[in-house]
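Handout, page 2. Input:
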Amino acid sequence: MRSVVCAPIACALIAITARPMSAQSPPRPAIEIYGGYSFLEDPGNSVLAVTAGADRFPAGWIAGVARPLSSWLAIAAEASGHYKERQSLDETVRLSFHAVMAGPRASARVGRLTEFAQVLAGAAHGHASAFGIEVGDTAFSLQPGAGVDVPLASRWAARLEVDYRWIRSSRDGREPANQLRASAALVFR
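Output:
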């Protein structure tokens, strides 16, 4: 008799508390790792006359990690490097920028795509070498940007991102820098 009463009660409790699988949201990934190609445009920051007008850094990389804090907010950290060479007389002029930054990233899913916007802050380091002389400078940098992730597989996505980077003026009198960056990366979640 007792099992006859308990069985319907147990079934009713399960039916009331159970939710259909389709209504459950997918589990949030513990971490996101990404890396890929990055292109930098650095107008008006020529180190030498030979580099004037050569504002593009075609060789570059980006690598980063993000940790979700909620369904729409994450904390992101990334590093990037950009390089170029120019020939001057009989000497090769080498220029590079490296940056290490972190900050908040907000995202929203629209259909299959995930759109995001972020504001990263950190340090940017510029370096130049020519004629046996090397110069470098590190300064505070702020980088707002936005992008979109296109799913490729269950845990993989392709990322397209555009950023504006502002680099503060240095103590030795260098003017602030304004850079534009475009990146294409693979994302693993």
